Structure formats: C-alpha cells, structure tokens
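**User:** My hope is that you can spare some time for a protein that puzzles me. As I understand it, each token names a local backbone shape. I would be glad if you read both lines and explained how they fit together. The protein I mean follows directly.
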Amino acid sequence: MLKLIVKNERSGPVRGFHPWVFSKALASLPEGIAPGEPVLLYDQSGNFLASGYFNSYGQITVRLWGQEEDEEVGIDFFARRIARALDTRRRYVERQGTNAYRLVNGENDLLPGLIIDKYGDYCVVQFHTRGIERWKEDIVNALEGTVNPRGIYERSDVAVRNFDALGPVKGVLRGDVPDILEIEENGLKFLVDVKEGQKTGFFLDQRDKRSTFMKYAPEKHVLNCFSYTGGFSVYAMAGGAKSVTSVDSSKRALDLARENIILNGFDPSHCEFICEDVKKYLRECTETFPAIILDPPAFIKDRKKKHEGLAGYRSINEMALRRLAPEGTLLTCSCSAHLSLNDFRFLLSEAGARTHRALTILEIYTHGIDHPQLLPFTEGEYLKAIFLRS
C-alpha cells in the first residue's frame, strides 16, 4: 500500500481525524497515483497516523477512512463500515413507523465521497468523487451483502462531481427499482420519486424538524414555502392544522404532495397547492399565516457568492415575516454549508429589524442522527433550522 509522509507541523488535524488531507501537508507526492488508490499516512518520525484513499493532485489530496495500519481494502472493508453505520441507524432511527433514513453519510461514516439513502427495501447511492467511484463494484456488493435491498439505484447526478470532471450517472445497479417508492416516517406515509426527485428523492435530513413542527400546527393556517412533495404539509395536517397552503415551482412535486396528503387520509380540500415562484408568491400575497415554513434551496453554493446568498436569505426571510401573523411561528432553514449558524442568526435579526418584528428563538436544530458529523469536520456542517416566535 502506498505510504505518504505528513509534515510534523501539519500532522495535528490528521491525528484528530479530520477527513481531508491537503497537498501542503505532505512532505512529498509521487507522480502517477490513481484516484482511489489506498494510502497509509505517517509522520516524519515514522509514526502511523491514518489510512485513506488518494483523492487528486488538487487541494484535497487524501480522504481518510481508517485508523488501522493493516486493513485490506475490498468488499469486507466496505461491508464493515456499512454494517457499523447500519447499526447506529437501527439503534436510534429505524423503528416501527420509520423505514427511511441516510445509511451512509460520506466522510462522517468513514466512507468519504459516498452517500447511501435507505428507502424501505431499496437503497439509493451517490458517488461524489473519482476516488470512491473506483470502488463502486465492491461497495455495491458490500451493500447487497450487508443490507440485502430489493434494489439499488444510483443518483450520481450531483454538482460536486464536477470538481473531479465526472459527468452525471443514473440508473439501476442491482435488482428492480420502481419509479415511485412508498416509505414510512414517524407513522406517516410518503411517496418518493427516487429517480427524478431532488437529492435522492426525499429530504431525509428534515425528519426531526418535521416532527417538531407538529406542536406548532394545531388549529393553524399553515404556509409551507418551497414545499417540494409536502413533507412538512403532511406533518402539519397530522399535527391538527386547519389548512395548509403548499407553494413550490414544481408541478410534479406538488402533484406528489397532493398524493401524500390523500395517502395519509387527510382531506385535500383543506390543502391548497400553488405552483409558483415562492418569492413572487410572498411579494404578491396579502394573507397572513399563524405558522410559516421556509425551507429554501441553498442560496450559497459557492464561497465566492456568499455576499449575494446572504442577501437572498435576508430578503426571503423578510418577505416571510411580512406574511407572518402577530405572535406567529416561523420555521426558517438554510442548507448552505457556507452560511454559519451565527451568520444565519444575524441576517434573521436584520430581517426582523426591517419588518419591525422582535424575534425570539424557540428551538434550533441541525443534522439528524442519521446525518452524523465527525467532530473536527466543520466543513461538513450545512443544515440549520430555527423556530422563531414574533
């Protein structure tokens, strides 16, 4: 196995198992290393530090996946990591009434660049890097042997693959995968479009936030902005909302949202589905709502566009606050990794000032248990959800 030397003054993050090793941390780097090739890292005194795979000759040179010096990489290697991740989810997430969750969360489950979402008897996988894609066959075989899903579908159509000059890849890898799957979450049912939907079909990272919102919904007229397939809308109705207005720019998503309302036995006449740009809707709407959900897509996808993204978040939250009834509840979210929680709080306070609303934080949420975070890997943080009272 290829051995690389880490400069002593740069070995701290590797010892702490930050999963990215940058090129400047290495004493030297041989030519001709293929992406995905297993490597062992040592300090300049010859002490073993960690194992990983060669990523590229760019900034992130090695991605870490182990602390064992003699661990052979192959099907058994990946099966052990998948089994470890599965055990955590089965202990803390999977229970009667919940059969969908993130099974492998990349670096945070010691499989950098790999995402696996479990939807009942099916799995959806994403390979984000050229290095992890090299091991696709072994990973799929390990997943099949460990989880034994009825089908495995690949959704490697994410923008992050552009960094490795990888094009989008989609398709069935094992078994037979229906176009639409039915899952359960906290006793509620949802139809999931794993082949064409956003991410891998469903926003699994909002499970706990959806459940929490139920206590703010009783007898309320709820506005769900960027509603997608109606996850929060279904939970609002389950929590006793009088009505729910779901707004999204995708008619396909709204059609599924309506089906999800009906699937759970709720009267669709108490629900409105508006296919429109959310910003346009909020600007033109004259109605106020006692409870609003604001869960937009990432406005800051590039660090260089942070200023523009901050303005976008500030603006959309200001518009939502103008539609929030007095003493109302706003659940506002950001999935931008380049926006810190403190910066999010500050821009929300600015939006409150512009709308003359004194805002109080009721609850703050980040990632769910099935989206664990390695302690030193702050770059992996992205989701922030704040329940506000005005």
